[in-house]
Structures are given as C-alpha cells and as structure tokens.
From TrEMBL:
This is Sulfatase. Keywords: Calcium, Hydrolase, Metal-binding. It comes from Rubritalea tangerina. SUPFAM superfamilies: Alkaline phosphatase-like (SSF53649). Belongs to the sulfatase family. Residues 24-337 form the Sulfatase N-terminal domain.
Length: 470
C-alpha cells in the first residue's frame, strides 16, 4: 500500500486531463441512399427506428438539410472537405478510364479533409465503412488523408455477407482475411465500438467517421430482420425495411455503449444520409418529396440530419431553416476549438483563395446568432443543376425547360411556375452561372454517358408522395 499512490497517479492524471478537456468526442454517422421518409422521426409509420428517433428527441432534428450532390461520391467529397466539390472538379461518381491519370480520380491531395483539421486540433481519428472518394493511388487512402485508423471498403458498395474468399474489405492497408461476423452492418458497429473503447483510454479526444453502406444496394438482409417485416407484400420493400431495422439496432448498440461509459451526454453525434433515397433500386421512400437519388428534386438532395449533444444543445429542437452539409465541417472544427477560414493555395501554378462554403451552426442553434440569407447550389456536368434562393428553387435538367418552384407552398415540387416568373428565372440563372465561374478546376472526370440518359428518365417518373400505413 506504501507505493499505491505511485500506481494511481497516472490514472488520476488521465482523469483530470479528461475533466479539463473542453473538446468533445465526435461521432459522425453517415448512411447511404436512405429515403427521407424512412425514419420514424421523419414521418415513417411503417419502419420502426426507436434508436435513431431517440437521437432526434434528445437533440436537434433538421427539416431542411441538404447534401451537395444527388449521388454518393461527390456528396461524400463535399461532406469530407466542407466545400462545394465542384470547386475542385469532383462532380461525378468515380470513373476510372484509360485516358485519365489515376492521381486525378479522387479528392485532390491539396484539399483538407475534416480528419486533417481535427487531427491538427489534437484528435485521434478513425474511418469505418464506405470510403468512395478515391482509391486509384495510395495518396487517396484514408490513412493518407488524416485518419489514424481505417476499416472498410474503398469502393462504393459491398456484399453484406462477405466471405474470406470474396470481400473487398481492408484493415488499414491490409486486405481482410478473416470474417469477424456474418453481416457487414453489424461488423462496422463492432469495429466502431472497439475504436471508441481504445481511444477512450487516452487523454486525446477522438473523432470517428462511421460511414455505413446501409441501405445501399445490394439489397440483402438478415433472416431475423426480414421476419420483423414479413407482413409487407413487396419483397423489395421488405428487404429495405429489414436493412433499416438492422441499422437502427446498431445505432442502439452504439448509444448503449456510450451510455454505459458515461459519454453519451458529452459526445457530439451527427447523423446524416448521403443523398436522397434510391426509389428505383432499393425501394426507398422520400415522401412527401418528389424525386429520387440522381435528380435535383428535393427527394434527391434533401436528407435526414440529426445532431445530438446534450451537454450543449437542447433536446427536442426542430430546426427549420435551410442548411447544407458544409456547415458540419465548420461546426465540428469550432466545437474542437478551431476555425475554418478562407485559405490561399496554389492550384495549377496560380494562387487562389478558397472561400468558406459553410457556417458554424452551434451558436445559431443556441440562439446566440442568426443564420444569414444565402443561396445554395448544385451542379453535375451534363446532368444539369439547381439553385435555391430563399423559398425559390430553380432546377435545370438537361434538354428540358427550366423548372421553378416555391418550396414554401409547394414542397413536393408539383407546380412549375417558371413561365409566370421569367424575370426571376433569369436572375437565378445568372447567379448560378456566376457561381460556376468561380470554380478552381474543371471536372476532373465525367461518368459514363449512359448515366446521363438514366438520370434524365428519372424526371418522367411518378413518385409516391404519401407514407404507407404499417
């Protein structure tokens, strides 16, 4: 007992440092192709999501949150950089073609990711799940982009029942050779909890980017989850609902872990989906919004977003102003004690100033500041784009007349009023093209032309605008 205080002192010091540290641990959960209306807290009565609903009731639920693209890879590029991905040429899903230099096909290495910024502020960083923002050269690997740990797949989709012989999973730089658990969503959660457990033993805060590929195709679910939705007639919809159940169960495991460790109140949790639900592939529902993944309708770019940070943010807050994913970067960096500023960088031998594309939402959510008016923009070369200014939204789909909607009285975008407001259409066109002229790079690659035709046909479809009964 004489020397016990020497043994306890390091533990007491660690505890004191943790108590003094103002930086929160940060968990960023990203889902893939989920429908707006496929969570209980966003209106679903068919799919039960009690754990994600718990996040919403205990935090902030955003009703007008936008991603920066209507498909996976460019959306993730915008999320991870906190900038319009069009500025640095990442407008399309990744496309490796013979005429392209491999070092071009990904987020340029001169772009700072959220992991880089948080690492500079003292965070231990981890990425688990779907990467999909570059794998053609080693410099694009997560371990070269500010992450200390990586487990997952570098590409855009994966079989949910991997085997030793058939998987594209990596542990760091090494290919996975053993299957820890049969179903991929469960596996990602196990690795996430292990990461949080390891990093919680140190004095540094941690940041975990947990990018589930659920409920992206292939549509595969566990038998036990399918049984919970056996009453649903459509086999495709049944699988989708089962995958949502599994996702919610896994969010519950994470919340349970944080609660058991006494960290739930102080951990800043962001829950976000990467683009609109895929109606035609996964049978997601974006009701009450028109459209699907791949379109500029609200159903393609408006997504569920929840922030949970009980130590700072009030429970049950519903935030109704338009926000965009770039705000996440600014808010997390500010919460960590830093600031994102305009930066001067060299691009192609010339110096350019990178503008700030987001704002810190925390003081706004606390009522200490007001969100200033701003326009939001979207573009994908050969597939058109959109601009939202106030309640007005102009959609410019290729080979079609412009579509103008007032989202305040027509959130489902059913009444095109462009012919009634030609001056407004012209003004929005002009502002949109002024924005395009500010890009630092042209598109670095363009996806296969077949996708342009596929996306164009999505505007001719009729979409379900009401939620189904149980």
């Amino acid at each position: 007992m004489k020397y016990l205080h020497y043994l306890l002192y390091p533990l007491l010091l660690v505890g004191a440092l943790r108590a003094e540290r103002a930086q929160p641990n940060i968990l960023f959960i990203l889902t893939d192709d989920m429908g707006w209306g496929d969570l209980g807290c966003y209106g679903s009565t068919q799919i039960k999501t009690p754990n994600i609903d718990r996040l919403a009731s205990g935090g902030v639920r955003f009703t007008q949150a936008y991603v920066s693209a209507n498909v996976c890879a460019p959306s993730r590029a915008g999320i991870l950089t906190g900038r319009y991905q069009e500025r640095f040429g990442f407008e399309h899903n990744l496309s490796i073609q013979d005429h392209l230099k491999p070092e071009m096909v990904g987020i340029p290495v001169d772009e700072k990711l959220i992991s880089d910024r948080l690492k500079q502020l003292g965070y231990r960083t981890g990425a688990i799940g779907k990467w999909h923002v570059g794998e053609s050269v080693p410099a694009f690997h997560p371990l070269q982009r500010g992450f200390d740990f990586f487990f997952g797949m570098l590409g855009g989709d994966h079989d949910y029942f991997p085997s030793k012989e058939h998987n594209e999973l990596s542990w760091g730089n090494e290919k996975v050779k053993q299957i820890r658990t049969p179903y991929l969503t469960d596996w990602f959660t196990m690795e996430a909890i292990d990461f949080m457990e390891r990093e919680s033993e140190g004095v540094d805060p941690w940041f975990l980017y947990l990018a589930y590929n659920t409920p992206h195709s292939p549509m595969q679910a566990k038998k036990s989850d399918l049984e919970a939705y056996a009453h649903i007639e459509s086999p495709e919809r049944r699988v989708y609902c089962a995958m949502q159940k599994c996702l919610d169960d896994n969010v519950g495991k994470i919340l349970g872990y944080l609660e058991d460790k006494g960290q739930l109140e102080s951990t800043l949790i962001i829950f976000l989906n990467d683009n609109g639900g895929s109606v035609e592939v996964s049978h997601a529902l974006n009701a009450p919004f028109n459209g699907t993944k791949g379109t500029w309708y609200e159903g393609g770019i408006r997504v569920p977003m929840i922030w949970h940070w009980p130590k700072v943010l009030s429970a049950g807050l519903r935030y109704t102003e338009p926000v965009i994913v770039f705000d996440i970067m600014h808010s997390l960096v500010a919460a960590a004690g830093g600031e994102v500023t305009e930066e001067k960088v060299q691009v192609g031998g010339r110096e350019v100033v990178r503008p700030k594309d987001g704002v810190n939402l925390v003081p706004i959510l606390l009522g200490d500041a007001k969100l200033e008016d701003r326009s939001l923009y979207w573009r994908m070369s050969l597939r058109g784009g959109a601009i939202r200014k106030g309640d007005w939204k102009l959609i410019m789909a290729p080979h079609r007349p412009p579509m103008l909607f007032n989202l305040a009285n027509d959130p489902s975008e059913l009444t095109n009023v462009s012919m009634r407001r030609p001056a407004l259409v012209k003004a929005l066109y002009r502002e949109y093209h002024d924005w395009c002229e500010g890009f630092e790079r042209n598109p670095m690659w363009i996806s296969s032309p077949q996708w342009a035709g596929y996306n164009d046909a999505l505007y001719d479809r009729t979409y379900e605008l009401k939620q189904p009964e149980e």
